[in-house]
Amino acid sequence: MYQTILVPLDGSKRAEAILSHVESIAKSNAAKVIFLKVEEEPIMLERDEVIDIAKYHEVFDKQNELSQAYLDELKARFHAKDIQAVTKLAFGSVVKAILNTAAEIGTDLIAMATHGLSGLARVSYGSVAAGVLQAADIPILLIRSCDDPKEETC
Q1: Is residue 99 within 8 Å of 8, Cβ to Cβ?
Q2: DSSP letter at 146?
Q3: Is the CB of residue 98 less than 8 Å from the CB of residue 8?
Q4: Cβ atoms 38, 90 nearer than 8 A
Q5: Chain segment 20-52, per-residue pLDDT in tens
Q6: Mean local confidence (pLDDT), 79-104
């Protein structure tokens, strides 16, 4: 049923609550898993503000290296379980990057964990899951993660 599963992650344990579900779906469907991490480009200058561009590139490159290492570790864990997995590092708006990646690679399923915000907290801070849910035209698996990192899902 599913051939390609996109798994957006932010590096947190809460986001990783989806991984056991993805593992099960991928194994039962012989599906490929794409681990995606989106880096928002942090440079927003005020009028007349000057930055040390060399330092900026150093910090940006270091963050990208850490993100890629994180994704590579997840890929290795899935490969050890005989699940085909690849990684992708994207930049920009998180919701747009998830949707664009899904369209580019022909994803059958987007699987992600929500951080469980509701009501005013979700409205105030925005929600990646809500944004993807509203705009995607493919199936989405959402798992609500818990505050307690020992519990995988609520």
Answers
A1: no
A2: P
A3: yes
A4: yes
A5: 999 999 999 999 999 999 997 666 566 666 677
A6: 96
Q: What is the pLDDT of residue 125?
A: 38
Residue 82 Ramachandran class (φ > 0 left, ψ -120 to 50 alpha, else beta): left
Q: Which residues contact 90 (CB under 8 A, 6 or more apart)?
A: 36, 37, 38, 39, 97, 100, 101
Q: Which two tokens stand for residue 11?
A: 């590096």
Which of these, 137, 108, 136, lies nearest to 2 by C-alpha position? 108
Question: Does the pLDDT value for residue 12 go beyond 60?
Answer: yes
Q: Is 14 in a helix, a strand, or coil?
A: coil
Spatial separation of the C-alpha atoms in residues 59 and 64, rounded to whole Å: 9
Instruction: Of 76, 88, 86, 94, give the one whose Cα is nearest residue 135.
Output: 94
Tell me which amino acid residue 89 is: L
Amino acid identity, residue 124?
S
- Alpha carbon 2 to its chain centroid, in Å, reads 18
**In the chain, where does DSSP find H-type helix?**
19-29, 53-80, 94-105, 119-125, 128-135
